[in-house]
UniProtKB/TrEMBL annotation:
InterPro entries: DinB/YfiT-like, MST-like. Gene3D superfamilies: dinb family like domain. The lineage of its organism: Bacteria, Bacillati, Actinomycetota, Actinomycetes, Kitasatosporales. It comes from Streptomyces nigrescens. This is Mini-circle protein.
Amino acid sequence: MEFMEEPPMTLSVPDELMAGYLDFYRNTVLRKLDGLSDEELRRSRVPSGWAPLELLKHLAHVEMRWLQWGFAGETVSEPWGDLECRGGRWRVGPEETFEEIRAFFEEQCDRSRAIVAGARWEDRAATLGGKVLPEGERPALGWILFHLLQEYARHTGHLDIARELADGSVGE
């Protein structure tokens, strides 16, 4: 996978800057997983037990939950499909492949981009976790995007460590 650079330092338009950083982190997550064997993708190297492939599936569902289900109010079949049970451990079945989960992740990212392109930062989420709340209690799109960005930054750091432990790769 090709390296994607951070957005230009001169970029100051908030929505373009956010879109650029989200895409930078989406790309970085995929690059960190690229080249790992199936065994390493499914192997946990941390006490909490998560594996890199589980993390990728989790991020796909995070995109779906926050932007499709929550912000756009769309019906989704399994909003918590990355978890054993709501609030439980991440899960990937033995029949699920990296290629399938990667394609699912990319589909969710594409759908997220389309939703964001048709909205304004101050627009409020339609629901929150499937619950209809008063407008003042629903997060604005700008808040949701910052939440996604911090989730990506945190989990990309986790993948940095997992990749270094797996094969010694460090850096970008």
